[in-house]
Amino acid sequence: MKNLNGYYGQWGGAFIPEVLHETFRQLKDFYSAARGDPAFWQEYADLMATYSCRPTPLTAADNLSRHFGGARIFIKREDLNHTGAHKANNVMGQGLLVKRMGKGRVIAETGAGQHGVATATMAAKFGFKCTIYMGEEDVMRQRPNVFWMEKLGAEVVPVTTGSKTLKDAINAAFRDWVTNMDNTHYCLGTACGPHPFPEMVAWFQSIIGLEAREQIERQFGKPPARVYACVGGGSNAMGVFQGFLDLPGVELVGVEAGGEGLETGRHAARLASRDGSPGVAQGYKTMFLQDDDGQMRTTHSVAAGLDYVGVSPILTDLWEQGRVRFASATDSEVMAALELTMTREGIIPALESSHAFVQAFKEAGDMSPDEAVIINMSGRGDKDIFTIANAFKDPSWQQFIIDKGKEYEAER
Amino acid sequence: MKLSAEIAQVSARKDILLMTHIVLGYPSFETNREVIAQMVANGVDLIEMQIPFSEPMADGPVIIKANQDSLLAGTRLNDCLNFAREMTGTHDIPFLFMTYYNILFKYGIEAFCRRAVEVGVQGFIVPDLPPEEGADYLKYTRQYGLAPIQIFAPTSTPERMSFLSEAGGGFIYCVARRGVTGTQTTFDEEFNNYIAQCRASTDMPLAVGFGISHRDDVQALIGRADIAVIGSETIRLVDRQGAAAVGPFIAGLR
What we know:
The complex is a heterodimer of chains A (412) and B (254). With 412 residues, chain A is α/β, with parallel strands linked by helices. Chain A has helices at 21-35, 38-50, 62-68, 87-101, 114-126, 136-141, 143-151, 166-180, 197-220, 235-241, 313-320, 331-345, 351-364, 385-391, 395-411; strands spanning 7-8, 11-12, 58-60, 72-77, 105-110, 129-135, 155-159, 184-186, 226-230, 251-259, 276-281, 284-289, 324-330, 372-377. Chain A starts with 6 loop residues before the first strand and ends with a helix. Chain B is globular. In chain B, helix 5 packs across helix 6 (109-118).
């Protein structure tokens, strides 16, 4: 990754209000010092090995491989990370940085709630105060995650402005930060936002790719032909891709939310569709889903974690260079891939991660058995039981919720 | 006349200038028209017209809501430009555009500057564009004779203020305190030190905004600042009492 003042090609930068200039200067200094200090990465790796579940396994999905009759399919199991997703990698790394900076409070945005839960967990462990901003729509969609954040000791603030989703939660977190920057760190959850966030988050997530590279060479004897990852903001994709960027023979595939289909306009595919265009918002320059005036559009995906208007500037650069290929998966393709993975492998990917499975499944059958593919399973799906049960329209689950509701009603 | 010269001319006659703020298309262009007429009739010296943006990251609740409602009502950039032309043709005070960088970027920076000159606007306030990211913006605003107004914050170091002043034009917008628009500011010792630092770092006039909403606030700024900026308060006033309440409010500030 070439990085000149936070630029990757023409993408990235730091479009921040003046009041945050000093805060970013300090953050860049602490981040550079940490990055240059091997002891910091060692402390991080030790923490992730003892508090979380790193290295996460690389699972050979032999039943799926047989089913498609082509490439050997391997799954990188970020679902087995503590709190159930890759989000913990970034959060624990930033937590160590907050300790170095001597701040006592962290704030974060969250969409699906995974990053919020991970941040609340980190704050509990390190003894920080914690406030999570979450769009009101998402608060309603992801009640179980709100429950856990509050139980972990965080304050969850529903954001009622804009589209009441992830981008609005990011705006709200920035507004908190411009008021409380002296004692507060904004723990941004993905490889987006102003410099140094894209680079810093990608660095913490690179632990996924480092492990996967070593694991595939040990288990398969050579690098994979292709690596698949879903792309919301892009942090899990950047994480796994970094293990293979130096190998031109490894094709890297990012899968965006196709929603109800690219032709319907109800999707969140910034790079895989023709609907994205260059813009500057939320502190950085990338391809955004926006109208001709530069107003951000509403996006759609069955997966709340992919439902975002922008995308990591690092990925936009890799896309422009032709190093990362982009595809999209529709909501209904995602449900089919999820069902197949559950019944064939006994593994439950998150709705977000299932997007990567869709594209791998479309391509694996045309590949040869002496080729391998890695699917980055960014998180586990069982935590999303309400969303997944709803997407499957499962009648017995619906009845259970109705009965439970009546039970609570009677107790009142 | 250049904005800085115009400000100097008015400053010679008044203790302090008043700059007010409106969000274009909120609650409607019709109301904007009436509010601006009231402002000008009651002695407002400059007006910043905010072009609404879907992601107003530096604004507080009152202005966020105004941005959002304006866009929901269908406000387009072209409506804002046409309205600006009408206002600059009607009222003989300087008008500025305040907006976020994406509006300029998407339109094309040079094209936007050309258009702003055509509609008679004299400068821009773009809170999410530091000079480091604004090479083209600074080049074209200068080329077209527009003021690229820079912002000082209480967190800005003296070196930073000098750098910003170097890049800026028209006047300096001093953010009175941390946080976003629309909540009260206190004028204490710390504030005095900050303003003294601002003054020492630039030759340009100082405008002070964020949380200025009463006669007392404006009085407190006399002798310290050159321009008092009234932002969210007039929006609140129009929401509660309608456009007609703006005139008496402005008249009572000085």
